[in-house]
Amino acid sequence: xxxxxxxxxxxxxxxxECSLAVIDPLKENPIVAGDEAGKIPxxxxxxxERNCGCHYTSNAxxxxxxxxxxxxxxxxxxxxxxxxxxxxxxxxQPAYEAVRDRVVRIGDMPMALCETDEGGRITAAxxxxxxxxxxxGAPDGATFQP
Length: 146
Fold this sequence. Notes:
By secondary structure, the protein is an all-alpha fold. Helices cover about 30% and strands about 0% of the residues. The chain has five helices and no strands. Helix 2 (about 40-50) packs across helix 5 and helix 4 packs antiparallel against helix 5 (about 125-135). The chain is globular, with a radius of gyration of 14 Å.
């Protein structure tokens, strides 16, 4: 199900079916990432772009993605501010707690159709990176310690 990059797949992460590049190839990456204060860490932004494309597009014509994510994930504040999504289970918590629950604990995000060449929904490397970032409380690019 994956669309692999032309480069050696051991050095370049595989683009899965839920990457922004696959879901909406014409969409400019809206993630505000960098290694500065106040930004999503660059490596985390790259992992989000590879795995969470639904949350960065409103492309309702996608033939394989039945849902475009309602939870916005473009800027660091989208993770650190209180959760404002539809699931009241996370009300009053920082939004990163909902993301950690869905990606790390429950494992239902990315969606099941986002299978990678490793057979999972997200590569082991991207899952480890996101887990480390979320476990640290979603720090900015200047303070994140992968």
